[in-house]
Amino acid sequence: MRLLVTRPEPGASETAALLRERGHTVLVQSLLTMSFSAPPDDLPWPGALLVSSQNGARALERWRIGNAWRDIPVLAGGSATAEVLAGLGFSDVRAAAGDARSLADLAIATLSKKVGPLIYPAARDRAAALTEMLVAQGYDVRTVEAYRAEPVRHLARAVKTAFVAGAIDGVLLYSRRTAMALCDLAEEEGITEMLAAPTYFVISERVGAVLGTVAGKVRIAARPEQSALLALIPS
């Protein structure tokens, strides 16, 4: 298939390599760019860390103070995030099933409320569900804005040309903001109607809902993880 990968780097190139190994032709355009923030100076020593995404792991990697936290329990949003954290040297990494509910459930099942502050390096634009669920159960959660995603301003010429020519069979979408960015850019470029042709492989129902009537065919991953998303794509 001729596929478009839209996730931010470095994940976009990693996904493209996997798809090319499977025989697909791949275009890459990250529709969001990531920037990372330093931690506040007054962070307490954590009882555990909550890392809901790979970008949260990459933010934590940039925190100098994080070098001293390698033996602290880390609860990861999913298996891919857990792999990144293990690769960074964290020795006690526990993986949830890929969403906020399962991450909260994992914390409740494995952490005492007396463990100490749960440090959560989070995105600027995020749902409040994880923090709210744990605070309601009596946990001390310290949410730190650690990274943010900004939409790019233009579609790459090769990507626009491919949409216009009907040369994209499938589009991979990993987040609501990426889906929104694609729809906004297509409207600005005057090619919204061209978005109807490809099949959209999306990480969750919430992402697919953004596409509305723009997309003709949407396939939703069984779990909100890349492995489940890639399993949707025919060989």
Structure explained in plain terms:
The protein is α/β, with parallel strands linked by helices and 235 residues long. It has 2 domains: 2-31 and 151-231, Rossmann fold; 43-149, Rossmann fold, CATH 3.40.50. The chain is 35% helix and 22% strand. The chain has helices at residues 11-21, 54-62, 79-87, 100-110, 129-136, 157-164, 176-189, 205-211, 226-231, and strands at residues 2-5, 25-28, 32-36, 48-51, 74-76, 93-95, 118-123, 141-151, 170-173, 199-202, 217-220. The longest helix is centred in the last third of the chain and has 14 residues, at 176-189.
Quickly describe the structure.
Helix 2 (54-62) packs parallel to helix 3, helix 4 (100-110) packs parallel to helix 5 and helix 7 (176-189) packs parallel to helix 8 (205-211). This protein has helices at 11-21, 54-62, 79-87, 100-110, 129-136, 157-164, 176-189, 205-211, 226-231, and strands at residues 2-5, 25-28, 32-36, 48-51, 74-76, 93-95, 118-123, 141-151, 170-173, 199-202, 217-220. The protein has 235 residues and is of the alpha/beta class.
